[in-house]
């Protein structure tokens, strides 16, 4: 009788440990998913911020000039921005986030904390690092 009780106890402990391991595996998956979602939102936010600045310049009259600073980090991670033709691409941890622009602009690579001057002359929007 004693050995049957101890055997049943060990089976219940084993089942409990297996259930606990499954729970931790699922929790880890969802935690990683939420961190990845945070990176996605950060990349999209930076792309939209720059897109809004450029689209604003595209809509106003000639002789428009504005300076803005690119954020230093996105969600605690380093990033890079590449602008070419009508696309803005933000890269964070080998993931790319792209937004489309209303107007063609010059090609430029932007790093965190860069100060960018947007100008419009002769219906052409130009981006320059300051």
* Overall residue-averaged pLDDT value: 90
Shape: rod-shaped
First-residue to last-residue Cα separation: 84 Å
Biggest pleated sheet: 3 strands, antiparallel
Counting DSSP H or I runs of 4 or more residues, the number of helices is 1
Please state the structural category: alpha+beta
Percent in helix: 40-55%
Count of individual domains? 1
Question: Can you count the beta strands?
Answer: 5
Strand ordering within the main sheet: 1-4-5
Whole-angstrom Rg: 26 Å
Binned strand content: 35-45%
- Which stretches are low in confidence, meaning pLDDT under 50 for 5 or more residues running? none
Q: What pattern of helices and strands is seen along the backbone? A: HEEEEE
Folded structure, characterized:
Helices cover 45% and strands 37% of the residues. The protein is an alpha+beta fold. It has one domain (2-129). The strands form two sheets. A three-stranded antiparallel beta sheet has the order 1-4-5, with helices on one face. A two-stranded antiparallel sheet has the order 2-3. Strand 2 and strand 3 form a beta hairpin.
What brief labels describe this structure?
three-stranded antiparallel β-sheet, rod-shaped, 130 residues, 1 helix, single chain, two-stranded antiparallel ribbon, alpha+beta
């Amino acid at each position: 009788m004693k050995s049957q009780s101890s055997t049943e106890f060990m089976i219940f402990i084993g089942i409990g440990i297996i259930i606990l391991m499954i729970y931790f595996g699922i929790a880890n998956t969802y935690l990683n998913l939420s961190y990845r979602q945070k990176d996605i939102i950060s990349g999209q936010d930076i792309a939209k911020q720059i897109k809004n600045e450029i689209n604003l310049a595209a809509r106003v009259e000639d002789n428009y000039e504005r300076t803005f600073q690119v954020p230093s980090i996105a969600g605690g991670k380093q990033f890079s921005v590449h602008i070419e033709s009508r696309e803005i691409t933000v890269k964070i941890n080998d993931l790319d986030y792209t937004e489309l622009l209303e107007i063609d602009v010059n090609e430029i690579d932007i790093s965190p904390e860069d100060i960018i001057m947007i100008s419009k002359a002769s219906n052409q929007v130009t981006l320059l690092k300051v």
